[in-house]
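Supplementary Note 2. Why include the ligand at all?

Several targets in our set were suspected to adopt different conformations when bound, so apo predictions alone were not considered sufficient. For every target with a known small-molecule partner we therefore ran a joint prediction. The input for zinc ion is given below.
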Amino acid sequence: VPAARDRLRIAIQKSGRLSDPARALLASCGLSWRESRDKLFCYGETLPVDLLLVRDDDIPGLLADGVCDYGIVGRNVLEEHAALREGEGRPQVSKEVRPLGFGGCRLDIAVPEAWDWEGPQQLQGRRIATSYPGLLARWLAQEQVDASVVMLSGSVEIAPRLGQADVVCDLVSSGGTLLANQLKPVATIMRSEAVLAGPVQPFADIRGELAQMLLRRLDGVLRLKD
Ligand code: ATP
Ligand code: ZN
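The joint prediction is reproduced in token form.
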């Protein structure tokens, strides 16, 4: 049984595309913080809701370990973690609680511009570079395509030019990066945006009431943004 806690802890990206909008959204819910010297932890002042500033990739794990109660993270990162867990036969402990309406992007298959795209079967036997092996494997299985997945943690779109892979499965927003690497998007594996991720099980202590209040405020703010 985890120890009772009387403050909520929310993990957000320390620096990157989601940091500023995540903080702005929480601030518009009436939260404010006193920052620690190392800027990793922000102590909630107006409400007992603290922030942990981390790499986005660490957020699903921090949630799963109960280090954080909520996280603001791309659906792509949350679902990748879930897909890997599922592959290991472990139960899901966190889930998407609310879509947040920023950080929109797609996880797309992109192929060399010269290809005439005829559908997923064209990927049979090919090498696909990605940072999302779990989501890609799930999609390949669904499409009944046998391909080899080349896991790269960054610079995925350059892999075909380097001869590391034939095609890529990467995040796309404007498509500019793909174009610059002579690739074109041909299929969408997932539509993503920033989401509030939280526990599957309800809180058994005062955090339950804090969470309800936070969600009520968040819903009010999100409604105004629509
Ligand atoms: P960190 O240092 O925290 O690991 P990162 O480089 O992995 O940072 P960012 O590039 O800031 O992360 O992207 C964070 C999230 O922003 C992505 O997981 C995705 O949900 C979203 N996003 C929106 N548009 C794009 C895009 N064009 N490319 C990559 N991510 C995007
Ligand atoms: Zn990251």
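Residues 105-192 form a domain with the D-Maltodextrin-Binding Protein; domain 2 fold (CATH 3.40.190.10). The mean pLDDT is 96. Comparable summaries for the other entries are listed in the accompanying table.
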